[in-house]
Design a protein that fits this description.
By secondary structure, this protein is an alpha+beta fold. It has four helices and twelve strands, in the order βββββαβααββββββα. Strands 3-2-6-9-10-5-4 form a seven-stranded antiparallel β-sheet.
Length: 208
């Protein structure tokens, strides 16, 4: 199988396309869309976002040291794209996208986006100046989830929210489920039909 060799570049896809909500200490808020984000630690729960220093939101991040990762859905595709291509210097993204600004439960400045099914509240621990992007390493201080997606057993059905992904310049829905974590090594349950066959072969009866 022939393959081309390209120069080094970021071809790690798909990625989550998330909306980051933040504010400065004067109360000015903004939203920016980011795909350079991810999990870095479980305990303590830590994440990162990478932002270009020339972005309007960069100074807000440095000043307040807070941000919220708002997961996006197919219903939020337009807003996700808009908040990534328009600058908060020129437009009010909350108003233009019909998004609702609500107070975070653990942060002083950064708000959450009410329409997002999951709001991950974060406090910056360090900033790594890597090159074109600066990485904000942050600790998760609280998570809010939409109660509409809680089932009867109290489980949060995250994959029922219609999550959005970003891959090579395109927004994609996550599609159908192909498996669950660990399914490749999980023992397959014996079918009742096979069990009955073995009983019959041995002359036994169910319940003996």
């Amino acid at each position: 199988m022939a393959k081309q060799v390209w120069k080094p570049g970021n071809m790690l896809y798909p990625l989550p396309a998330v909306m980051i909500s933040l504010a400065d200490k004067k109360g000015n808020t903004n939203i920016l869309t980011i795909a350079w984000t991810g999990t870095v630690c479980t305990n303590p729960a830590m994440v990162y976002i990478s932002v270009r220093p020339e972005r309007h939101s960069y100074q807000m991040l440095k000043e307040s040291g807070e941000f919220v990762i708002n997961l996006t859905t197919e219903d939020l595709t337009y807003a996700t794209d808009y908040c990534g291509v328009r600058s908060g210097k020129d437009v009010d993204k909350w108003k233009e996208c019909g998004l609702t600004e609500e107070k975070a439960v653990s942060l002083k400045y950064a708000p959450v986006i009410a329409e997002s099914p999951v709001n991950i509240e974060c406090r910056v621990k360090s900033i790594q100046e890597l090159g074109t992007h600066h990485m904000f390493l942050a600790e998760v201080t609280a998570v809010q989830v939409d109660e509409r997606y809680m089932d009867d057993r109290g489980k949060f059905e995250l994959n029922s929210t219609g999550l959005l992904a970003y891959s090579h310049g395109e927004y994609l829905g996550l599609g159908r489920k192909l498996g669950t974590f660990g399914y490749s090594v999980r023992k397959k349950p014996l079918h009742k039909e096979n069990s009955r066959s073995r009983k019959a072969e041995s002359g036994g009866k169910a319940g003996e």
